[in-house]
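Fold it.
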Amino acid sequence: GPIGGRADQQPWPVSFGGLGPTPVEQYLFQLECAMARAPVQLSFGLRMLAPVLMHFGSVEQQQRFLPKMLSGEHWWCQGYSEPGAGADLVALKTQAVRSGDHYVVNGQKCWNTLGQHADWAFCLVRTDPAAKPQAGISLLLIDMRTPGITVRPTRLLDSTEEVNEIWFDDVRVPVDQRVGEENAGWTYAKFLLSHERVSIGV
């Protein structure tokens, strides 16, 4: 099975399906993969969301999502940036209103990388508009096949369509797909962003 992680990052623990390699073993594995031109996974699930679920996710979420993330069966995209809330993520406006055992999500995400190919998205949403900006955010895991989701490609200067806008129109997301506590999503987002910066910077 895959070692699950690059040589610059912590390896996946054995308890979550990884091999728990030493740094040298991890480096050699990645080197061999590169020399063999083996396909690589995007970082969104494998190296960004996975550590969040390992630390803050429920046991059910860990059992449901981590194995398919590690195997490449599920591809993930990120729903953070919005028009007017790019670098300033706490200004996000996408709302998730609790309705029984679901949240009803409405809003827009932008600069979403390869969302047109993703099975799932992890999204920051506002669950308490009356709270201080950082205090009213939650992190939801959203099936991209859910009714009400529209993905629109953004054509870049090189004519590629790598990034997208994602629109949510009364999208119903089960409450058990919220990571951690309601309105505590900014804590999980900061944890995730620390892994994103390491992944991009190396």
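The chain has four helices and eight strands.
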